[in-house]
Predict the structure.
Amino acid sequence: MIDTLNEDEVIELIALAWIGRGDFERSDWEEAKALAEERHGRRSFSYLAGMPALGDYLEEGLAAIGHSVTRKPRRIISRLGRGGTTFRPAECLQA
């Protein structure tokens, strides 16, 4: 699932997880993305897959950027991985 996302989507997913985990605030979105790209590059999938609370972090991150979560984050990731509706966290921040 996550391994089928493009690089930009994975970087946004990492940044969103970090916001949800409390490492960054909503206002730090660009900084979080830059750091995610710098630190994780080709290891992004392994890094995300190794986060035991990834679903919780994504849910909290979505809430922090003002996106209402009506589905479990796993289902959102699953839909992204299957080419379903693309969710771009950055679009929520521009609203």
Observations:
- DSSP finds six helices and no strands in the chain.
- Residues 15 and 84 are 21 Å apart (CA to CA).
- Confidence is low (pLDDT under 50) at residues 75-85.
- The radius of gyration is 12 Å.
